[in-house]
Amino acid sequence: MSEKTNPYKVPTTGHVWDDNLAELLNEPPKWWMIGFWASIVMVVVYFVMYPSIPLVNSHFKGIIGWTSIKELKEDMQAIERSRAKYENRLSGMSAAAILADDELTQYVVRSAKVLFGDNCAGCHGTGGAGNPNFPVLVDDDWLYGGKIEDIVTSIANGRRGNMPAHAGTLSEQEIADLAKHVKALSEGGEYAPGKELYSGKGKCFACHGPEGKGMTALGAANLTDGIWRFSPGTEEAIAYTIAHGVNDQKDPKTRNAVMPKFSGKMSETDINKLAVYVYKLGGGQ
Ligand code: HEC
Ligand code: HEC
Hints:
- Helix content is 47%, strand content 5%.
- It is mostly helical.
- It folds into 3 domains: 1-67, no CATH class; 83-159 and 261-283, Cytochrome c-like domain (Cytochrome Bc1 Complex, Chain D, domain 2); 162-256, Cytochrome Bc1 Complex, Chain D, domain 2.
- The strands form 2 sheets. It has a two-stranded antiparallel sheet. Strands 3-4 form a two-stranded antiparallel ribbon.
- Strand 1 (12-17) and strand 2 form a beta hairpin.
- The N and C termini lie far apart (93 Å).
- The mean pLDDT is 91.
- It binds heme C (HEC) (2 copies).
- The site of one heme C has 25 residues, from helix 5, helix 6, strand 3, strand 4 and helix 11.
């Protein structure tokens, strides 16, 4: 072997390829060797501490008694403990009092999401975004008012807006004129023949107010905001509502709009939680 094939003065295995490539016997770097031995020690320690070696009918359980089920149970208990802290405070608290406490409100908004999904989303859509012919809860347009007490009442007692069918008292032409006027109202205008019926023969003002802004005590919709409770807000759809009314049992073609009552079906605490959740969806007043 020549200087040319081993210029490093390191022992070699004696193998030389192509007359000039020697295989040197350098030690691996120290950091690498430390890692190597440390990982062997880790393997032994791990084997002794944790469940490791399979036996014929069971397995070696390890000296610290760890199991994944035990770890899961401990994690669940920790979650329960952190929830109990809030849940204990919530019971007996009014929705308004919850709203006054930022920390509780945040907890409720997070935890009531599931409650809403299970009980309300079927009608009001995911996150209250609304379904055709069910009110949207994420906006600030309220049939029955957006104060926290109003929302609690809506959920606890249910709601059922009543508008009589007008097909028997108004002619088709009158209904068409009214629909034209209502459509115009929602766009900031008016339609004279319909306007006259609105305040006169139709008696619409009695529930929807002289300017069509609605009346929360009756759940009468605001007709001027361009938000349609019964979609789509076309003249035909509006005329249909006028002709057949809402929840008018005497008209088989009436629109049905019933919010079921939840008191008795869920705890008062859950109702308050949902009210805070709905309030915080964006439209609380
Ligand atoms: C079976 C369908 C249905 C279910 C389930 C339902 N709602 Fe309603 N909800 C309605 C209808 C329909 C109305 C409108 C009633 C009306 O037009 O008079 C309404 C109205 C409301 C209102 C009043 C909205 C306003 O503009 O004033 C609130 C608040 C409300 N619901 C919350 C909830 C919550 C919270 C839940 C779950 C606990 C829920 N609803 C479950 C159908 C439902
Ligand atoms: C006795 C009260 C009452 C009278 C009278 C009444 N309404 Fe209504 N109207 C309501 C209520 C309550 C609602 C909302 C129903 C609901 O959502 O549950 C409604 C809903 C409507 C809607 C649907 C609004 C939307 O967002 O889709 C229109 C349109 C409407 N009314 C027009 C009229 C017109 C026009 C007249 C006059 C011919 C009239 N109403 C008379 C109570 C009344």
